[in-house]
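In response to reviewer comment 3 from the previous cycle, which asked for concrete evidence that the modeling workflow produces usable outputs, we include below a single protein chain processed end to end. The sequence was submitted unchanged, and the resulting structure tokens are shown without manual editing.
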Amino acid sequence: MLTTIKGVYKNGQIKPLEEIDIKDTRDVIITFLDNNKGKDDSKFLSSAGSWKDMDTELLKKHIYENRKLSNRDEINL
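The workflow returned the following structure tokens.
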């Protein structure tokens, strides 16, 4: 089972910010997030949710139609 929780690292200790419901010993993987967001990060994050109203089925239909061989130019070797 994989469980992901948020936590804070401060003064050499990691403090969970959420309740942990684990009774026995477990191995963990700790990933430190970069809090120093640069310009590229803010542009990426600002685009979050911009496709939420997109009709994904219609988008996929257009993509598949444009990939058909009959829509491509003839290749002359």
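The two ends are 54 Å apart (CA to CA). We consider this sufficient to address the reviewer's concern, and the full set will be provided in the supplementary archive.
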